[in-house]
Amino acid sequence: MVENQQEKSDIILSSFVLHHLSWEQKYFVVSKLPHLLKTGGIFILIDIFRSENENRENYIKRYLEGVRQDWSELTSQEYSLVEEHISKNDFPETQEAFHSLATKHGFTKVESLYCDALDTTKLLCFYQ
Q1: Contacts of 123 by beta carbon, 8 Å cutoff, 6+ apart
Q2: How many structural domains is the chain composed of?
Q3: Three-state DSSP class for 51?
Q4: Integer Cα distance of 118 and 67 in angstroms
Q5: How far apart are CA 45 and CA 111, in angstroms?
Q6: Strand residues in the chain grouped as ranges (E)
Q7: Rounded distance between C-alpha atoms, residue 30 and residue 105, angstroms
Q8: Count of CB atoms within 10 A of residue 124's CB?
Q9: What is the CATH number of the domain that holds 98?
Q10: Which has the closest alpha carbon to 22: 46, 56, 65?
Q11: How far apart are CA 122 and CA 77, in angstroms?
Q12: Does residue 67 form part of some domain?
């Protein structure tokens, strides 16, 4: 379907989606972006990211500590649901991993425009 796409976009936005995918699925998605973007197009990625050299287990522990501290209105049952979702479904990569992946697929510049206080949520722009 992507190969047959006639219309190309100036910008593609992904917001809190890719961290739910496996590395192979992320690779596939990013590999298709150049075919969907006009020359000079921008891929905007808003998502969660691990710190460099942080494994998934430590990231989840750190993220859930932030949830427990900052999401004070959650009941214990609601926190358990959030914890279960994150533990089963979140597979964040590092910013460097996405930078390398994007470079491999023709993006020439990566810029971080936002990072939250916990260094978990970022807004990255990938330029062709």
Answers
A1: 44, 45, 46, 112, 113, 114, 115
A2: 1
A3: coil
A4: 10
A5: 10
A6: 9-15, 37-50, 93-94, 109-115, 121-127
A7: 7
A8: 21
A9: 3.40.50.150
A10: 56
A11: 28
A12: no
Under a CB-based contact definition with an 8 Å cutoff, are residues 79 and 52 in contact?
A: no
Range of 26's domain? 6-54+90-127
User: In the numeric block, which tokens belong to residue 8?
Assistant: 């190309």
- 73 assigned to some structural domain: no
Q: How far apart are the first and last CA of the chain?
A: 21
Task: Give the tokens for residue 73.
Answer: 């209105």
> Does the residue 65 lie in any domain?
no
Walk along the chain (128 residues) and give the pLDDT tens digit of each residue.
Answer: 455 667 899 999 999 999 999 999 999 999 999 999 999 999 999 999 999 999 999 999 999 999 999 999 999 999 999 999 999 999 999 999 999 999 999 999 999 999 999 999 999 999 99
Place of tokens 């996405």: 98
pTM attached to this predicted model = 0.91
**Residue 70 resides in a domain:** no
Q: What sign for the dihedral angle of Cα 36, 41, 46, 48?
A: positive
